[in-house]
Here is the input.
Amino acid sequence: MSQLYVVRFNNEPEIEPPAEDDDDGTDVKTTFAHFGLAFYQACVLEHQVVNMLVLSQLIEAEADARQFLKDPWEEHFKDTLGRLVRRYTERPGGDQQLTNDLTEAVKLRNHLAHSFWRERAEDFCSDAGRADMIAFLEQARDLFIKVDEQLTELDTAQMERLGLTQELIDRQFQAMRQRAEARDQQQL
Here is the structure.
């Protein structure tokens, strides 16, 4: 059986990074921290879209599941987020608002990955500019969280149809944590 990938952490990153000595929270480290949080949420969203595509495929191919389950996650992670979202939203019976939100999230993720720093180079040189950057990154992060939550709600219903219980997901998560902790212990 294929591995179920779960991306959840007990120690989720703080939504607001701690302020440095800077009174208005626009220092260089804070700007980088906000970028990291926004891009992290984009990655969580990307993972959730892959999970949704895989679960949809499992439902559609339930009769042929054994042949199909080589490792469908790996195949999907080879695609770009835009391609993943396009494939996900082309499925019948989709929610138009979710489709619009996913499309907006892809554009925003691509902007962060490909042009954010180039377009904001001048802003990065001043406190006021970094404050604008941070405000933009907070909005980006919030959009990624919102869309991920929408998909998680749908994901729960689909998983129940497949018989994937919260208990199974929790066991998989605990196994992942144990492997990570064992790895940390090996480095000591």
